[in-house]
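DM from R.C. (forwarded with permission)

"hey, sorry to bug you on a friday — could you get me a structure for this? deadline for the figure draft is monday and I only need the backbone to look sensible"
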Amino acid sequence: MTPDVRLVKDLVAEVPAFEDLYATHVFNQGGVLPHVFFWDVTQETVRSYVGPEADAGARADALADAPDWRRTLRFLEEQCARGVPGIDEVVVTSFLEYLPFPGKPGHEIVRELGPVMAATFAKVRPAG
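My reply, with the result:
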């Protein structure tokens, strides 16, 4: 199993709230496509971070089942600290680069990144 696919499976094991998203992804894609899956992970993580007040149309129970953004960031920080090329590529290209830009809802999540991801984020998106 490649490091990027292992990353997806380990994330789902660490943050079980991603299980339904993972199952849907595998069904729709016919397998695991880490970069595609992580676009959804980014969206769900930011949605969890901004909370129900930012998404007035969302059902309260759906937001309650959202993946814990703190747990997700902690897991990704630990994985990035390992310095495994396939993992770093997915996290940088399909997570960090898709975080909201300044002025957009949820941009403040970048202040919550751990030191490894924060340093990488500053390199790939120096303007935030």
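R.C.: lifesaver. Residues 39 and 74 are 18 Å apart (CA to CA).
me: no worries. Helices lie at 3-14, 19-29, 34-50, 60-64, 69-81, 85-94, 115-124.
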